[in-house]
């Protein structure tokens, strides 16, 4: 069973993703791919505190959660700061 806010992408997160995709009127598949990230990017704000020499830092301000993100400058791959582990985790699901 998925525990909300644990940084895992389980069935509850997939269901919430599908709902969000429907509200945003984009392809509904429960997967966070380029189209979903493109739409979510509007809620992302710069945060230089999470910059590194190869990544740019951001905060995502969502409906129920705010979390830190970093975007790899060379290839556009995103990671997020997992609230449960405190480590940076890939966002491809």
Q: How would you describe the overall organization of this protein?
A:
With 93 residues, the chain is an alpha+beta fold. Helix content is 22%, strand content 26%. The chain has helices spanning 11-23, 34-40; strands spanning 44-46, 55-61, 66-72, 78-81, 88-90. The protein has a five-stranded antiparallel beta sheet with strand order 1-2-3-4-5, with no helix packed on it. Strand 2 (55-61) and strand 3 (66-72) form a beta hairpin.
Topology:
Blueprint: H1 11-23, H2 34-40, E1 44-46, E2 55-61, E3 66-72, E4 78-81, E5 88-90
Antiparallel strand pairs: 1-2, 2-3, 3-4, 4-5
* Average pLDDT figure: 81
Order of helices and strands: HHEEEEE
Shape: globular
How far is it from the N-terminal to the C-terminal residue, by CA?
Answer: 18 Å
């Amino acid at each position: 069973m998925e525990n909300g806010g644990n940084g895992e992408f389980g069935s509850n997160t997939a269901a919430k993703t599908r709902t969000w995709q429907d509200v945003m009127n984009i392809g509904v598949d429960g997967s966070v791919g380029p189209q979903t990230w493109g739409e979510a990017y509007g809620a992302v704000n710069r945060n230089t505190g999470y910059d590194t020499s190869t990544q740019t830092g951001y905060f995502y301000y969502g409906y129920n959660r705010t979390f830190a993100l970093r975007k790899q400058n060379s290839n556009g791959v995103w990671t997020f700061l997992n609230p449960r582990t405190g480590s940076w985790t890939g966002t491809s699901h």
